[in-house]
Specification:
By secondary structure, this protein is of the alpha/beta class. It is about 40% helix and about 15% strand.
Length: about 450
């Protein structure tokens, strides 16, 4: 029986390799690192056809907050499926999208009271960029059309989002297609000089930003940042002080602040919105990934009454000219509402404080390992860097560590020399300790 299952799985992998072009992947690498065919998931675990299980240490690319096949989210989607699966949001509305918008607005204390929907994170960023650009046109300041982004930042891979992404591999491939932007220093706390702390780094970075704003504010529409953690940028973490300083500078120079919370929102940072750590609100805030619990494609861009009112008028061309076929999909909104209900009823943020302590305990070995530097954590994100002198090749290390972790029953996906975990919010202390021990064994194999 096992032989038949092995054969079935191999056939499925072969079919996938011949027909499916996988994302951000050099397909030739799968000649030596085979795809894994997943047949089901339950809780924090993924299973293949032989019932081999993997602990989903990265929440399936940071999306799965409450485990796979969560019965409450399943029930909400099934109940909605019996009513309406989809209807266009132009000229129509429905209960799930209204309730979700109201609940999200309430979570911001009404500061961000208007929600525009899309299906993926990059699209939500595109919406915020276009809204900012269009706003300044409506305010008779068309010269304000440039954007500011952070060194090593990531905001998506559509053309607008990629323009404000500072990742070398994307720049080299698609730079000729992108608009020019201003790129300023990251407040990455790893850049601290002798005697400095994270707040000092934040102030230095903000000072550089202030000089740019002073000189170029007349042509800058907005700055976009990932609050507290630049996730795809090797989990670079910074002080909340930076957010406070940027908010002040944006107010002084009349520039929009876009907070890209696609990865760090929905409780990942320790609060529902990462901006809450700094007690500030941006002009635009984007969410995706965890908002639907990892179930269905859903993203959104929230904004203020002031910005919404700028688009409110008699002429169509004054309206925001953007649309998606599946905007505000009822099934995705139902999944998101179920997730928000779990946050409310299960005291998720409070319980995550204990889970973050479990993470720190599980990876205490890394903090003490001389081969590792820059151990850091923020909420339900933990990361550390492997010293380049301790690995054979910086280019192959991520694949080697990925492969070694699979053998230990762990799904992790290093970024460069950075090992990180971003697990679902349902891990037990025992599962968390198992994760730490297994990742340590995998690292010892690769480093050896």
């Amino acid at each position: 029986m096992k032989l038949i299952s092995d054969l079935n799985q191999n056939l499925l992998v072969d079919r996938s390799l011949s027909a499916v072009w996988h994302p951000c992947t050099q397909m030739k690498h799968h000649e030596s690192l085979p795809l894994i065919a997943i047949t089901r998931g339950k809780g924090p675990w993924l299973y293949d056809e032989q019932e081999n299980k993997l602990l989903d240490c990265i929440s399936s690319w940071w999306t799965n907050l409450f485990g796979h096949s969560n019965p409450r989210i399943n029930q909400a989607i099934n109940a909605q499926l019996e009513k309406i699966e989809h209807v266009m949001l132009a000229g129509f509305t429905h209960r799930p999208v209204v309730e979700l918008s109201e609940k999200l607005s309430a979570l911001t204390g009404g500061n961000l009271g208007h929600v525009f929907y899309a299906s993926d994170g990059a699209s939500a960023v595109e919406i915020a960029l276009k809204m900012s650009h269009h706003y300044w046109q409506l305010h008779h300041q068309p010269e304000k059309k440039k954007f500011v982004c952070l060194e090593n930042g990531y905001h998506g891979e559509t053309l607008g989002a990629l323009a404000v992404t500072d990742v070398t591999i994307f720049r080299e491939a698609y730079g000729s297609l992108l608009q020019d932007v201003y790129t300023v220093s990251s407040p990455d706390s790893r850049k601290a000089l002798d005697g400095e702390n994270a707040d000092d780094v934040a102030r230095r970075a903000a000072k550089e930003l202030e000089q740019l704003f002073e000189n170029e504010h007349h042509q800058i529409a907005a700055i976009i940042i990932e609050p507290l953690v630049q996730c795809a940028g090797q989990m670079a973490m910074h002080s909340a002080q930076y957010l406070k300083l940027v908010r002040t500078l944006c107010d002084r120079y009349d520039i929009h602040l876009i907070a890209d919370e696609i990865a760090v929102g929905c409780g990942r940072s320790g609060k529902f919105f990462a901006c809450e750590h700094a007690d500030i609100w941006p002009d635009f805030l984007t969410l995706s990934k965890g908002i639907s619990g990892g179930y269905l494609p859903l993203s959104l861009s929230m904004t203020t009454e002031k910005i919404y009112r700028a688009f409110y008028g008699d002429q169509t061309k004054q309206g925001f000219l953007h649309s998606h076929s599946y905007t505000g999909n009822p099934l995705a909104c139902a999944a998101a509402l179920a997730c928000l209900e779990i946050f409310e009823t299960d005291q998720v943020l409070e319980n995550n404080m204990n889970r973050s302590r479990d993470l720190a305990n599980a990876f205490a070995w890394a903090k003490a390992d001389s081969r590792i530097e820059h151990w850091r954590a923020q909420g339900m994100i933990l990361a550390f860097d492997v010293k380049n002198s301790k690995i054979k090749s910086a280019s192959t290390f991520p694949r080697e560590m990925f492969s070694a972790s699979l053998k230990e029953g762990m799904l992790i996906r290093p970024i460069g020399n950075t090992i990180y975990v971003m697990p679902p919010y349902i891990l037990s202390t025992e599962d968390t300790m198992q994760m730490g021990d297994s990742v340590q064994r995998a690292f010892d194999q690769v480093a050896a």
